[in-house]
Each structure stands twice: as structure tokens, then as C-alpha cells.
Amino acid sequence: MNHDDEDHEYHHPTHRGPSTSSSSNGSAPFHHTGLSNGKRSSMTSRTSPGGGGGARPNGRQGAHQSHHGPDSSHSNGLSSLDSHALHDRDMDPAELIKTSPRHHALQKLTHQDGMHSSNPSPSTEQTHLPRRSERLRYSNGHNSNNSNGSSSTANPQYGSPTYHSERNSYPSRRLSASIHSNNASPTSISTGSSSPTASGTSTSTPTSPSQYALPYSHSSSISGQHHHRDKEESSSGTADLLYATSSSTSAATTHPPNGRSRTRSKSHPELPNIPLLQSCRSASVGCSAPMATLFLISMALLGCIFHSNFYRQVDKDNCEFTYMQPKYFKLLGFDRERTAFAGKYGLLLFRDRYDYEVPVPSHMLKEYTNNVYTIDKEAKVRPVGIPALFIPGNAGSAKQVRSIAKEASRYYYETYLPERLRIGSTMSRPIDFFTVDFNEEFSALHGHSLMEQAQFLNDAIAYILSLYEDNRSLDPSLPRPTSVLILGHSMGGVVARSLFTMKNYKPGSVNTIVTAATPHMVPPVTLDFEISNIYNTIENFWIRGFLGPDAPLRNVSLVSIAGGNLDIVVNGDSGNIHNLVPQSNGFSVFTSSFPHAWVGADHVAILWCNQIATVIGKTLIDIVDASYSEQVKPLEERMKIFRNRFLTGIEDHVEKATYPSDSETIELSMVDYTMVDSKHPLVYPPKNSAAHDVESANPHFYVIPIPFGSDMDTFNLVTDYSLEVGNRLETLLCVDQTPDNDVSPSGAVSTPSALSCKHSNLSAIPIPASPVQPSSLSQSQGGIRTGKGQEFRFISQKLNMIKDSHYIVIKVLGRKVGETGFVIAEFGSEKNSTLSVPTTTLNLWSNGFRMHAFPERPSLVSTLQFPNIDNSLVTYTLTVERQGCRAPQKFAPMMRRSSWLMYEDRYTPNVADRESVDINFHGDIPYFERIQLPGKKGIELRFWMDPSCPVQLSLSLQVDRYGSMGKVLIRYRMVVLVFTYLVVILTLRAQFRAWNRGEPFKPFGMMITQLIQSTFWKFSILLAVIAFLQSLQARTIVAFDPIMGSGSRSGYMNSNAEEEILHGPGGPGGRYPAFPGSREGLDQDAYERMARARIARNESWFSSFRVGDVLLGVNDPFFWFLAPVFFQISIGIVILIWMLLNGLVRSVAALLTFVSKRGGRYVIGQAIGNMLSKRSRGVRRRVITTIILFIMVATFVPYQFAFVVAVLVHIVSCVRSLLTAQNSSTSRVQAAWDRYHYLMSIFVMFFLLLPCTLPVLMVWIRNLSVQWYEPFSSDHRLDYIAPFIFFVEAITDGAMIPRTPEKGYASITMGILNYIIFFLILFGVRYSWQIFFMSRIWIVWLLILQLKDTDMAIGLSKTIEHHYNRAFNQPGKKQK
Description:
Elements: E1 44-47, E2 53-56, H1 93-99, H2 103-112, E3 153-154, E4 161-162, E5 195-196, E6 202-203, H3 219-223, E7 252-254, E8 262-264, H4 276-280, H5 289-311, E9 327-331, E10 346-351, E11 365-369, E12 372-375, E13 386-391, H6 402-422, E14 431-437, H7 447-466, E15 485-489, H8 491-498, E16 512-516, H9 529-544, E17 557-562, E18 586-590, H10 605-608, H11 610-623, H12 635-646, E19 663-667, E20 672-675, E21 682-684, E22 696-705, E23 714-719, E24 729-736, E25 754-759, E26 765-768, H13 777-780, E27 791-798, E28 807-815, E29 823-828, E30 834-836, H14 841-846, E31 849-854, E32 861-866, E33 876-881, E34 894-899, E35 904-908, E36 917-919, E37 930-932, E38 939-944, E39 953-959, H15 961-965, H16 967-971, H17 973-996, H18 1004-1014, H19 1016-1031, E40 1036-1039, E41 1051-1054, H20 1084-1099, H21 1101-1104, H22 1122-1158, H23 1163-1173, H24 1179-1195, H25 1199-1222, H26 1229-1265, H27 1278-1292, H28 1303-1323, H29 1330-1347, H30 1351-1368, H31 1371-1375
Parallel strand pairs: 9-12, 13-14, 13-15, 15-16, 16-17, 17-18, 20-22, 30-32, 37-40
Antiparallel strand pairs: 1-2, 3-4, 5-6, 7-8, 9-10, 10-14, 11-12, 19-25, 21-29, 22-28, 23-27, 23-29, 24-25, 24-28, 26-27, 31-39, 32-38, 33-36, 33-39, 34-35, 34-38, 40-41
Helix pairs in contact: 5-22, 6-11, 7-8, 7-9, 11-12, 17-18, 17-22, 17-26, 17-28, 19-22, 22-23, 22-25, 24-27, 25-26, 25-27, 27-29, 28-29
Region (Disordered): 1-272
GO molecular function: phosphatidylinositol deacylase activity
Domain GPI inositol-deacylase transmembrane: 1103-1346
């Protein structure tokens, strides 16, 4: 058989001694088995001068050929020897052992080990080559059926027992002690097969193929010379020895340990049906029942998680579109003279139909694209408004500012400006919205792009401010602007916060930042180390920025707006800035809490949703003030506006409206009035009252005495009227002017004659309408409509805040026939109307919560609190029923659910008419302290009901297990990648451990199957134990409470069994000093303690280490199972990846083979054939290619591009190795398959490294598309990519990783893999970008192992050793 892929000759240096040739007297001849495709070839026998003869290959072709066939009278019991131990030559094992210089030592070792037998002399025996179908199976190290008649004996030299069996384990690093049987002559060796003697009797001399297995580590010492290794046939061990067995033409006789023989049929019924080692010699997936089962379970679970994330526990999308007529003007004057990034980014000015036109001559305007115009760089642009800058996010557009800018302009020109002109103010100005064009750059994937954007923005802010140098000519009293209002979306908010850390930042140029859907705390994808560094830099600066009287951020306000669970791009938890910013300077809020909006939004809709854009636009107009050089109101006024616009207003922390100072006197004898008993609710219009069916223009007063001194402490009111001066309904606070007419505690009072009243809306806030009959289908299905007639007004007033008043008077300005308005008011006790349920997540998970009578008595407002439910990973389903109300109700029951970890409120109108209500919320994020906002703990459900109906609510709260599955996806999205890579490293570790023991390099799928049954479940238990122990650690809680009551507390608390509160200087129950400009009075000392503790942790890695930073972060003990579940899912993902990659390589190999055969006469067929037949390119060509690639990486392309090229080259190597293995001869087949399996395992690892490199490559390609050719300074590191390039080039030649049974090499190999496993468990999720750099260390070590046995490495080692000896040997020793 010809082997075209052999391109060099072997020169075997072993000395040949005398040996016994095959003859008819029963001596056993030895043949080399090299038959392929059923062909035969001959071997030339040469007799030594000593009378012995040994088989020797006849030339190059005969080296891989032999007599072999089912009808052969003399068959070989040995298929091949260790390619390294026998110097890669197909020699007669008897001749090699006999002629070896260490033959006598090995024979002596055999006798010492007692491996002798009383069988007849092997001189009368004959060896037989088995049928190919009867080759034995490798049994993964399990030995049985000792066939040499003696019990298993431990080898004293190698420390492991040696079994002689037809099911012998693969020979490992040890040297088999049983080379031949007892009384065997050194000139002949028995193969352990039975053959007829001269007398016709059958004699058995059992041995095993492992008898001839020479240790890999001693291969060079057998010949005393350095062996020459075939590049294609490297490190295959003694794999071919596994297939030797007894003759297929006769019954096999084996000797059990007791020395008695037993006869076994040739079919071997006790052996498994599918040989395991055949899988090691094929390209099979290695599928098994455990693998298939785990794969199906993992894929089903992963599918459920994705389905739950997208379709369960998701808010209704009730956003309305915003329509505008925008125009964009690109400022060409902002060129390279002002910024180094003018060729990459651009600056535009937005205009709408409400805005004035740009004061630029028409000949200096050119239409660039649709609605985009360019302003000539020579034109002088002089805007007269207040500057604001919009920063788009990842792949965002500069045009995304249009909705918010349009609503701000409309509000200014239609409402704000007429109001200011009415009161005579001339200092109001509109907002000039500038926007940045980043060419839709992928800023979330590349930290260097974030830094470039920040540098560009500081230059842009300086340029914008320069445009306003002469813009105050209309009003010289107005100061020149010194700062710009910032509006950032997504990663644009991160860029806005990073402006302060850049060298070109001008102090004071930014003092107000509003962000939408921004991941402030953790990046959405942590695959780039520069992004992690930027986040750390920003965090350190902002923590220090609020400390001290001269803090650089003391006047900066930051508001973070999140869209809720509709946003599946950025987790709402990561937008929580309460860890970074004190409440006096900012807060986080969800759009569902916006008054007049009450809707959630996805990642992009948060900018164009009309309800949200209207609230944000109005807020921006309210906070700006052209009379200040900062162009915004002072910090205290800004924060007051932010809270009133963005928060619901129900909580105590919301600023209350100021009361008018004007008062009026009401003579009750002159008006229509009704005295209302404080013990009963006021219902207007009253039921069954004919008087109110008459149209009247006269006002009617309802006088309600305030019941001071009773258990009633709150006044509540719900109406669908607008409670403002001049509207149909007004509320007044009145004082009785009648002498000696006091109100009793019960509220009873004699009729006053005159009242002195002041108009007050009592801090009325808007809430969604909940009509008895929904007006639209969307409203009946959970939607919330806003606008006129679609909102209620709600008042919840503490009586101690109005203790100077005696009466609350409701003034109704006339009546109309058929009018549908209503008013319901009552005094109540917050304590009696609030029920706290001290249940836990585990209890709800097991039993749920049911209550059939809530509240105890009818009430307008009732509250249900769950203080121990604060984990956002669990979702719930609430069912509310209220049946039996016969009397008509003014409104249907409505519910609001609130979370006290963030400002998140959601309203559910008509709650009793729904089948169920989803209860989910956001909270804190892993690896950070938990912030407790002012208010209660846990979650709160507040109900509004018509008290005229005495029927109570029936509640049922159950855990939505399926809906909870989707919450882990967006919160722990990086866990899947990290644990998937962890599974690959565990598999590689097992493969290399088996390889160094002398076993074949097992296929990736087969090794996963073994690990599923042995290691993975143990590893899952380990992860569960770590997660559980981690959850027992106390978690720091920072609780901020206002000082609006009799006292408050603030400080650190432990979340588990023990709670420790560190009080401020006021002590327990005392009043703490407020932040400058803050009415809430948060404990500044507590915030500073938290900030300084985090600063100390960030000083060094050791001081910053916390138990809560490892694995998935500190979580509830209930979620101990998350880590092992993620691990099991990752196993299924790895199986899927393995099947896809294996199928890809096999498909490409089959396609190339087909094309090369079918198109052999054409150029393409010849080219493919040449590629498959040649081992590699020339050395010079490869060196030139590598040098060119390195030059490109160092100058132009990022190293991520070179890695992708290396992966493509590696795929070619995998395809070539598969084709080589499929066409290898019998003596070379195991070595070829070992190399293929090794390359495929590395391919899986490379494939999982692509997510770490492809994002940056996408950014680079995007820059090329906009003709930006500036290189990335941080992505041209040759040391990052050189190991991968050298490694791919090293294995292209057909080299195989050598076995390293030596203790030092094996320890380093396992040590590197163990270190990677340890890091991935502890810090892989948080610092997943380290995966690529740890893989680089592993590749460097593989490269060292790959090259350590080359001539160059050996020569270099000898040179170093020589120089070392010359340098450090003593002179006296040299002379000696």
C-alpha cells in the first residue's frame, strides 16, 4: 500500500541482534499488521548470522504492510507497538526486545515481579492474528480475566497492578512486567494465543498485547539514542496493541487467577456490543444515553427560560407614537481644529416646527440627506436658547432625540411661555437640543470607543458653549451659559458620567444629567477589559465626588430612568444609582411611576413613547433657567421638580405643594352647604337624591370637621374632578371664626356661622382612572389611558400636617344634568387599614398566600405589606375577587404595587375584573450593597375601593414558577458563557489526564459522557454548597430614611438573622443633618461611611475581596440551586456546540473529498487534492505570512482579527486531520485519530473565545465603513495574539501534543487548568473578560509542550545547559 503523504524516510538506529525466525516447528513468527482496504503485501524475512531471523520492512513501502487475512495460517497477535517506544518503526517486537541494550534488565525485572507461568515452552506454540471484527475493547482501565494463569501482581517499579487479560486496559506509563511466560526463552515470545502442537493437542500460553507495551517515558532510553518521531504519527502510545486477541478460527482458552483454564467461544458474548475504543478511532459525536438525556433536559430548560423571559411576567405595551416635523443641521464648523475625532463623529442641531429657524443665510445651508442640512463652517451660528446635548447609546442614532425635543418645544411654546408672559417674566428661553452622531457605533462592546466618545463630547461641549458668546444681545442682563444640560440614552449615560474623568473636561460645564435605560452599575456585556476599567474609574470618581465641602460633584444632579421588564437589553436593576449618588443629588425611577404616564417601555421605546417623552420634555423645561449661568435652577429646586414630575407623590418623600396665602370668609348662612359626619365617608353625588338631578349654577359646600384626638390620622379623597382653583371642584382648609366652638375628638361640632378658608389642593396627585365600565378594550385588558377624563385625583393628607385647620371644605361649583363626576372622601386610620404579612419567599413558594376578607372593614384605601419579599428573581400571580356589590359603584377597585428598593410603582385598574395580575419588581444587583429607600421594606400592595360597597376583597398570591425562570436570564446573562467555558476546561482537564496516563486522546463527546456519569454531578454539588454558604454571609444594607416624622434611622444593616444599625450623630430616634439643599434630611454621615468603605475596598485587590463578590453574588439561601442549574444548562450548550462543530468539520471534509474526486480533472479539484495531500506550506512561506500578519496587527488591524484568522486556519487543520485519519493505515490510525480529537477539543475552546473577540472586530469593521482608519491603541498588542498564531502554525504540520507523564510537566498542565477552573467559579461571572487572557496562558503552555521535543528545543536546552555549567562550575572542578 502506497502512502502519498509520507514525505521523508525513517532511519532506525536500533542495533539488531540474533533472533529466531518462523519455522514449521511451532515457533511463532511475528508479522506487522499494516493491511488497509483488504489488501495484502509481503514482508521480507532476513536471518541474522546467529541463526535467528526477524521480520524487517522491505523498503519504505513495506514498512506499513503485512500478511493479514481471515484465512491466514500464521497471524500476528500484535497489531502495532508504541510509536514512540519503538521509535515509530514497525519492527518485530521479539527482535526489538532481544536486541535492546536493556533486554537483560527487563528480563530480570520480569522474574522479580513473579509474572511466571507453568505453561509449556512457547517454542511449541504458534500465534494467530484475530479477525478485525474480534478486536478487543478498551475498558477504561477496568481489568479482568487474568489470562496468564497467575494472579494480578503490583509492579514494584511503577506502582500499579498489571493484568494479563484479553480485556486488558490500555498500557499506561508503566512498563509491563510480563514480557513472556515462565521458562520462556529470550529468543521467542508468546503472544497468548492457542495453537495446535505437533502431537495435535492444544496448548495455551496466554499473554496480552500489553506485554509488549514499552513506557512512553522510557522510549528514548531503550535504544540509547534520540528517536525520530513521525510528524503525523505522534504520541499515539500503544493504541494498536489494544486490538490483539486470540484466533478467530478456534476457541480461545483463558486462564483465570486460580490457574484453571476455561474455554470461551469465539463470539465473546461477555464483551460489550459497541467497542469503546472504536469511538476513539472515529469522528463520532460520542453520543450516549446520559448525554442525550442531559442535552434534552438542558435545551428544554433553556427554551423555557427564553420563553418565560419574552412572554411571561411582561408589562403591556401601551406606548403611543410621537409625531413631529424634525430638521437636523450638521455643524461643519466643529472640525479637526477643535477635535481629533471630527472625521469619525458629528454634531447636529435639532429643530422642530415649534422652534425658530436657524439664523443662517440660506446659501450657507445645503441639504445633506432627508431632513438633514449642513451649515457651512464659515457661517456664524448664534443660538439664543439654553444648550442641551443628547448622547445616543450603543448603535444609537442622533435622531432619537426628536420625540423628547419635540414635546419640550411644544410644552414651552404652548404652555410655559404664555404663562411666563402672563406674569411678566422675560427671562424664559427654549432649549436648543444638540445631538451627537456616533455613526451608530457599538459602544457597549468596546471600551476604547467609550473613551473616544467621552473625549469628543468634552470638545463638543466646549464648542457649544462658544456659540453662545454673543447670544445675549436680546437681553444683556442674562449671563453667558457655562454648562450644558445632558440627556443620555443607554451607554450614552455611561459616557456622560465618564466626562468628569477625562483630561479635557472643563469643570462646571456639566451639572445636570438625565439618563434613560442606562446600565450605570454593571456593563451589559463584560467581555472587554477596557469597559470594566472604565466602570471602575467612573465608580471611584463618583464615590469620592460627593465627599467634602469642595467635592467636584456637589452641585451635580443625576436622575436614572428605567423602562421596566419590557427592556430586555438592559436590566433595570443595573440602573440603580442609589449606591453611587446620595438622595439629595439624584435617584432612580421607573417610567411606570411617572404621573400621567404609568407605562413601561422597552430599550428604544423609552425615547419615542409619547407618554414618557411628554413627562421628560416638560421636566427639562421646568428645571432650566436662563437667569443662572449654569442655565438650570439650583440643586434643591431641581431635585424638587424631578421628584414631583417623576415620582408618584403618594410617598412621604415627595415635596408637598405650597398653599396660597390668600384667604376668604365663607358665611354659611349665605351659601348652600352640608355638614358631613367625620365617622362616615362623603359620597358625592349622593345616591338616590333627587336634589342633585337638578341643574344648578350655585356652588355647594360640604363641610367636614377634622377629628383631632381620635385614632383617625389620615384624610383620603378620590375624585375624577381636577382639584385646582377655578375648576368644578375645589378643596379648602378652614378655621372656625365662631367663638368657643371647638371640634370634638369624634368630629361632632355645632354648626359654625363663618369660616376663614384658604384654597389648597392638599397635594392632590394624579392616578389612573378605574371606571366601572372600561372605555376601551386596551383598558379592559390592563392598559392605562391618560388624558382628560382618564385620570383620577387622589389625596392622602396626614392630619398632623394640617393641625392649624378645623375643617376641610369641598366646594362643588354647580351641577349639570347627567354629569358623571364623583367625589369620595373619608377619615381613616393608617394603622387599621394596613396589614403586614410576615411571610417569606420560601413559604410563598410552598403554600402561597390566601386571604378571604380584606380589609377587615370597608375603607377607601387599604394597604397590604410583605416586608420580607424583596428578591426580584421571584415573580408572583395575584388573583383579586369582589363579588356581590349590588349597589352601583363610583369606580372599580384599583391596585398599586410598589417596591422599596427602587422607585417602582405600577397601577392596575379594574383589578377585580382580571383573571390574574402579574407581580414582579426590580431591586438591588449582585456584588453591591442593598440600598433601602425611605419608606417601608419589601413590597406593598395598595387598594382603592368604593367604601359604599361593604363586600370585602378575596386575595390569592401564588409564586409564578414559570414566570420566575425568565428573570434569571437578563440578570445573569454572562453566567451561561462563563459556565460553558468552565465545562470545556473540565473536559480538557480530563482528556489531558487520560492522555498522560497513556490512554488514547478521547473524543470530546465521549469524555463529556464519562464526566456526566462521574464528575459533573459532583461539581454541581460543589457549586450548590458554595452558593449556600455564600448566602449565609451577612449582606450590607444601607437604609436611608427621612426625618419628616418624630425620628428616623439610617445606616448599615445586615440582611440575615442579625440586624445591626449604625446610627448617625443624632443617635437612635434623633434628627440627622440634611444634605446641603435637601429637605429629606438623609444621614450624610451614613452615606460617607458607605462611600469610604467602598473606596477602601477598591484600593487593592486583597482589601476589596468579599465573599459577596464571588460566583453569583450574595443571594437568598432559597436560591442555592441557581449555580448548579446554570452549570447543567451549560453542559447541554457545550454538547450542542460540540455536535455543531463536529458536524461542520465532517461536512466540510465530505464536501472537499467529493469535489476533489468529481473535479479531479479540473483546476478546483486538483487544488483541493493538493491541499489535502500536502502536509503544510513551506517553512519560508509560513514565516512570511506570519510576519505580515504581525505587522498588520501592530499597525492597522486589531488582534481580534488575527484571532479569527487563527480560528479559520485551525478549522482547516481539523478538516485535514479528519481526512488523514480516515485514510490512515492500521499502524497509524490511532495516532491520526488522537490528533483529530485533540484538534477538535481545541476548536471547541477557540469557538467559545470568539464572543470575546468578535465584538471588537465588529467595531473595527464599522469604523472602516465610515472611513475611519485610526487604529485602536489598546487592540494592537502582539503579545495577546502571538501565542495563538504560533500554536496554530505549530499544529498545522501534523504535530501531536506529546504525552507528559513526567511529574513536573503533568503538574504544570493540571495546575494551569485548575487555576482557570478556580477563577471561573469565583470571579468568572463578574470578570468574564479574563477568559481570553487565561486561555492565552493555557495556549502558551501547550505551545511549550508541542515544541519541547523538537530538535531546535533540545539544541537550545543543551546550549543553555552548557553555558550554565561553564558559568557556575568551580574552577577546581573544571581542572579535575
